[in-house]
Every structure is written in structure tokens, then in C-alpha cells.
Amino acid sequence: MLEDGNRLLKFNMAKEKSLIEERDSLLVSVNRLQQTLQEQINLRVENDRLKFHMMELEQQNKRTAQDGKAEVQRLVGEMRAEAEKHQRELETLRQQCRSEVEDVHRQAFNQMEAKDAELKNLLERKDLDLEEMKRKLKEQEREKQSELLKLQMEFGAKLARVQSTAQLSQQQQQQQHGSSLLPQSVFKRKLQFFQEEKNREIEVLRHRIKELEENQHVGGHNVNPLKRRKI
């Protein structure tokens, strides 16, 4: 009985030791499992935190992209509005320049027309003056021709009178010389006096005829420049 009791006691002690060892092994496994589970929980929490952070970053990026897009759209709108403003100002400036150029052309055209009308009137007045001058020159020419003819007639009459007087004096001298009533020197002086008077009158008439001819020649030359100026 005692041996059975010892064997049973040894068996129980061995079984208790085996159970303790198994318990310790299970505790170690449980601790490891708890540690592993805790690590997985920690990893899951960290993963969730990272996912949440990434979602926040994505939302922030989306908001930033939207803000940037809105800013770009705002800048594009401002640039478009500024470009349209500049285009309107440029078109206004072009219209103003075109209007000013048209005004300048209109004024220049009006001035040219006024100058043309003034020049036309001046040419008409010059033509009238030229015609009047021609008429006056013709009248002066006729008057000079008449005066020249008159002077030539007077010259011929005076020359005939002088010649007649000289012949009469010579005849009287011959008669008086034949009768010996007057000295010969007196007849010579009278004859010389008549001859000198005749020469003076002839010289005066020649000088007058020469002046008329020169004036007539100058008057004829003065018409040509007027004609050339008209042309």
C-alpha cells in the first residue's frame, strides 16, 4: 500500500510538475499572443491614424488645388478683363486717330480747294490784267504810231520849210549880191543861222522819233514775259 501511495504521490507530483510546465508554457504563449495582438492593434491604430492623415492631406490637397484653380481662374478672368479693357482703349485710340487723320485730310482738302479757288481767281485777274495791258499797249502803240506819223509829217513839213527858207535866203542873197545892197557877210550869217536852226530841229525830231521807236520796242518786249508767266 505504501509503495502504491508513493507511486501515486510521485505520479501526482510528476503530473503537477508537467501541468505547471504546461501552464508556464501556455502563459508564455498567451503573453506572446497578447504582445503580438497588442502590436497588431498598435499597427492597426497607427495604420488608421496614417490613413486619416493621408485623407486629411488628400482633402487639403484637393482644397489647395481647388483654391489654386479658383485663383488661376480669377487671374485668368482679370487678365481677360484687362486685355478687353486694353483692346477697347486701343480701339478708341484707333478711332480717335482715324478721326483726327480724316479731319486733317478734310482740312487739307478744304485748304487746297481754297488755294485752288484763290489761284484760279488770281489767274483770272491776271488774265484780265493781261488783256487790259494788251489793250492799253495796243492803244499806246496806235497813239505812238499816230504820234510818230505826226512827227514824221511835222519833220517833213519843217524840213520842207527850212529848205524853202534856205532857198529863199539863197535867192535873196543872189539878188542882193547882184544889186550889191547888203554886204556878203550878212547873207552868210543868215544862211548859217537858218542852216543851224534847221539842223537843230532835225536833230530834235530825230531824237523824238528814236525815243518813240525805243519805247515801242520795249513795250513789245514787255508783253512776252506776261504771256510766259500765264503759260
Low-confidence stretches: 178-182, 223-231
Order of helices and strands: HH
Radius of gyration: 75 Å
* Straight-line distance between termini: 176 Å
The gross shape turns out to be: rod-shaped
Sheet with most strands: none
Strand content bin: under 5%
**Secondary-structure content class:** mainly alpha
Q: Number of helical runs?
A: 2
Average the pLDDT over all residues and give the rounded result: 78
Number of strands: 0
Q: Helical amount among residues, as a percent range?
A: over 70%
Features of the shown structure:
2 helices; mainly alpha
Q: What's a quick, concise take on this entry?
A:
The chain is mainly alpha-helical.
Descriptive report:
The protein has 231 residues and is mainly α. It contains two helices and no strands. It has helices spanning 2-179, 184-230. Helix 1 packs antiparallel against helix 2 (184-230). 0% of the residues are buried.
Helices and strands, with pairings:
Elements (H helix, E strand, L loop, with lengths): L1 H178 L4 H47 L1
